[in-house]
Amino acid sequence: MPIAKGGPYGAPGPFPGDGVVVGSDAEARKVVEAARRERRPPPALGLVGGDLFRTLGGSDSAKRTSGGEARLRADGGVVFSVDLGEVLIDGRLHFFVAHLVARSRLWTRAFVAMNAQWLGNWNLGPRAHPGDGLLDTYDVHLKASQLLPVRSRLHHGAHLPHPGIKEQRTSAVQVELEDDLAVEADGQSIGRGRRLAVRVEPDALTVVV
Fold this sequence. Notes:
With about 210 residues, the chain is of the alpha+beta class.
């Protein structure tokens, strides 16, 4: 069940023998989507990189190496129950573990759903939590003159509140954009879309860091 505000999150535990070690959000998403296509539960994910990994306390300097996988399999780590994002784009279903981004080239128009706190070096979802049963969404309408001031604050998560960014914490939301925008799930292009139906599936994944 989703965590209570201020409650403990994560506990030491083993990494299951049938778990899969992944080095990025995109790799994690690939494993999850394969499991869903085959109508089976996703395996436990051992994270050694990516924005979800960083959100859960992983080190920025960690790399996907055989040593990292060996450590998880030998010693385990901290085990988390993590939510999974889903998006239906003009009738096509996709999943995301860390973030969903639909945007124009310059980010003057965007819709973002964050399950993780980080998007690369940007602290884009400073209040996002991957185990609270909610997604932090941002409906962005910015003028070109506002882009530089906003971007200069993104690394520290100090870009909010902003009159051009509508923030909502929600378990489900439907968005109809003015135009087709490029859409990325966990940093990978999944095409273009105008109508987005976004929801969260609480406690869908077991993750070990």
